[in-house]
Amino acid sequence: MRKLIIAITGASGSIYGVRVLETLKAMDGVETHLVVSSAGYVTAASELELSRKDIDGLADHVYSDKNIGAAIASGSFATAAMLVAPCSMKTLASIANGMCNTLISRAADVILKERRPLLLLVRETPLHLGHIRNMAAVTEMGGIVAPPVPAFYTRPESIDDIVNHTVGRALAGVGIDTGLVREWQGLGKTDPLS
Fold first, then answer.
1. Mean pLDDT, to the nearest integer, of 159-170?
2. CB 118 within 8 A of CB 82
3. Are 143 and 11 in contact (CB under 8 A)?
4. Distance set, CA 94 to CA 23, 69, 90, 176 (Å)
5. Of 35, 103, 157, 165, which is least packed with CB atoms within 10 Å of its CB?
6. How many CB atoms lie within 10 A of CB 107?
7. Where do the domains of the chain lie?
8. What pTM value is reported for the model?
9. Is the pLDDT of residue 194 over 90?
10. Distance between CA atoms of 48 and 154, rounded to whole angstroms?
């Protein structure tokens, strides 16, 4: 059983974190450890009309973002990876600068120090230099910065298609194959240059 930490913060795009939880709940072999910031719950209620109970019910274990003594705050608690979906600029800055003032930033710090995969679906546009520098800092520490940018080569027909592709790519980035992403086979007969 692989233990995966999922964090949902207050950036727009709470559907990404919720879809990650829904996807993993339907799979065998993954135990989810969820932390949602207070702004994350507010955003999910606004965007998805989901309550705290609705979101928490998708996870195997749920922790308060204020509980810095939780199991996931220690490197001796062997987790496989951490995914922050979506990741606000506030959370990014906290992780990039080693603030550890919330359970989300502490758990991310632990993941980085233990050299485990950390993937951040950062959500903001446009970006200023401070955002870019924080993304560079996290990357230099070994984290993966993966803004949820839609892929149109897959010819999505709905928002769900776009969300599922991003979630599939994000989970693949931390070593979990969901079957949500169709492997690219090249242009084949549709190659405009042939």
1. 97
2. yes
3. no
4. 28, 18, 6, 26
5. 157
6. 29
7. 2-190
8. 0.95
9. no
10. 25
How do beta strands 2-8 and 81-87 pair? parallel
For residue 57, give the nearest of 28, 41, 73, 34 by alpha carbon: 34
Closest C-alpha among 72, 71, 167 to residue 111:
72
The full DSSP string for 146-180 is ---PPPSTT---SHHHHHHHHHHHHHHHTT---S-
- The Cα–Cα gap between 184 and 127 comes to 30
Give me the residues paired with residue 85 across strands: none
Angle between helices 129-140 and 89-96 (to 10 degrees): 50
Tell me if residue 30 falls in helix, strand or coil: strand
Once rounded to an integer, what is the mean pLDDT over residues 137-157? Answer: 96
Nearest by Cα to 143 from 181, 87, 103: 87
Task: Place domain 2-190 in its CATH homologous superfamily.
Answer: Flavin prenyltransferase-like (3.40.50.1950)
For the stretch 13-27, pLDDT in tens is 999 999 999 999 999
